[in-house]
Amino acid sequence: MLAELPVPLRGPFAMMRYLGVRLGDVRGMRRDAYQAGMISFVTGKGAVEVTAPCPEPLARILDAQPDHATHLFSSSDGSPWSEGGFHASWLRVRLRLETEGKVKPGLTPHGVRHSMATDLRELGKTEREIADIFGQWTTYAVTGATSAATGAPMTPMCRSRTGRGP
Q1: How far apart (Å, rounded) are the C-alpha atoms in residues 17 and 3?
Q2: For a disulfide at 157, which of 18, 52, 59, 101, Cβ 3.0-4.6 Å?
Q3: Which class would CATH give 2-107?
Q4: How is the chain split into domains, by residue range?
Q5: Beta strands of 25-103 (E only): which ranges?
Q6: Residue 163, Cβ neighbours under 10 Å: how many?
Q7: How far apart are CA 53 and CA 81, in angstroms?
Q8: To the nearest whole percent, how much of the chain has pLDDT over 70?
């Protein structure tokens, strides 16, 4: 699906897909959030600091993003994404992709984020590890966002309420 998106939407959706970042955090992400192969930001919901290695597919997309003065992602006119502008752009693209049979009807940015949680569960991540990756203090929301599966554990992410990452 990511390959079908226009460049201004591809980066934000890749961030949600590969790291489970909330749309509000993606839209507000500063340019310096991606450095030296790492993504670092503070979540808007819960003020949790998240520092995570940038997966290779996401790094390729971020490296191809146009440079902007302040934000990592911006609309086609170069300004930071507004909530309404993002949703209007996504609606146009989503309707086209639905017509072409490339996405299920009604796909939302939040749904893309939740698919990442399911993938992590299928790879054997625990609810605590998934909550850490998603920048959540508790595992409460993770239970509803994942399906039961088993697999090999992956490297845990780091979070802290104060200070800077690991």
Answers
A1: 13
A2: 52
A3: mainly alpha
A4: 2-107
A5: 34-35, 38-42, 49-53
A6: 7
A7: 24
A8: 83
